[in-house]
Amino acid sequence: MKRISTLAVFIVLLFSLVVGYFYFFVFNKEHPDFENLKPEYVLEAAELYKQFTSDPKKAQLMYGGKMIQVKGNINTIEKLDSLTIAVYVFNEGMFGNEGVRCTFLNEEAAMIQDINDVQNASIKGFCSGFNDTDVILEKCSVIK
Amino acid sequence: MKRIFTLSAIILICHTIQAQKYVTKNGHIKFFSETPVESIEAHNNQVNSALDISNGNFIFKVLIKSFEFKKALMQEHFNENYMESDKIPNAMFSGKIENMSSINFNADGVYDVQVKGKLTIHGVTKEIENSGSFEIKGEKIIAKSIFHVKPSDYDIKIAKAVEDQIAKSIEVTVDITLDKMQ
Predict the structure, then answer these.
(1) Which has the closest alpha carbon to B84: A57, A143, A83?
(2) How high is the mean pLDDT of chain A?
(3) Is the ipTM of this complex over 0.90?
(4) Helix%, strand%, coil% for chain B, nearest 5
């Protein structure tokens, strides 16, 4: 009887651990800590843009959904409502500038007022892909 | 003298054509799914859009990976299982504003719009017709519309295990502020 009780307790405990694991680490897992994630690729922003414009499918498979670190001359900082975006411009299209657009994490955005705050710095971000006009990096942070 | 006049005319025409276009690279699209089991919402602030008021052509394009969900697992399933965003990275709408003549782009105000065109999601294109509004505010146009999309119409396969958690018809809200091209 005692052995059965011990076994029952053990089974209940094991079941609770499994359920708990799935609840906290699978079903309710948190978004990645983008600020502290290491980049999978480090390259010039111009090279990233060139790869996406010359072979979008190949570049999407390689860089899409990955953390990328880019460097180069940032042309402009855009402040739009709650968004702060650094833009590397490499082309002029029918609808304006085209290049690599980096949208900063909120905590980073608060520290960036103009281009002087990011000039000569590298930017790390999550690559969402290419929308036929720009390569989009999001959840970006400055690497000085 | 004649050359200077011709060159000036060309510059003026190009500037006028440019001034007919309104663009943005950070429009907002939200989609919302509600069932008795769960409510799911996702937001995208990287919507690329352009409007040409000379002919009513209106377009918006959106990267699927830019949709943000509260739950990381849901975002993962959305990209990997339902939308296959590595293979088909973008969704887009390309169409025309049908009632351009009823909109005065030089007078601030809110105008009803009728739009017709092709909506492409998950590589599948459907003709859609919808209503919305343009709010003219100086050199800005705030374009808004709400419409519904059935995942099944776009070959989006929802796993049987989660069928009850995702609505058969998803509400899509478009809220795009376009700026006049200088």
Answers:
(1) A57
(2) 90
(3) no
(4) 25, 50, 25
**Under an 8 A CB cutoff, do A29 and B72 touch?**
yes
A131 to B181: CB separation less than 8 angstroms, yes or no: no
Question: pTM for this one?
Answer: 0.88
CB pairs under 8 A between A and B: 72
The distance of B170 to chain A (nearest Cα, Å) reads: 22
To the nearest whole angstrom, how far is the Cα of B162 from the nearest Cα of chain A?
Answer: 13
Contacts of residue A79 in chain B, CB cutoff 8 Å? Answer: none
Q: What percent of chain A is helix, strand and coil (3-state, nearest 5)?
A: 35, 35, 30
Q: What class is the A34-142 domain?
A: mainly beta
Q: Are B97 and B58 in contact (CB under 8 A)?
A: yes
CATH fold for domain B21-180: Lipocalin (2.40.128)
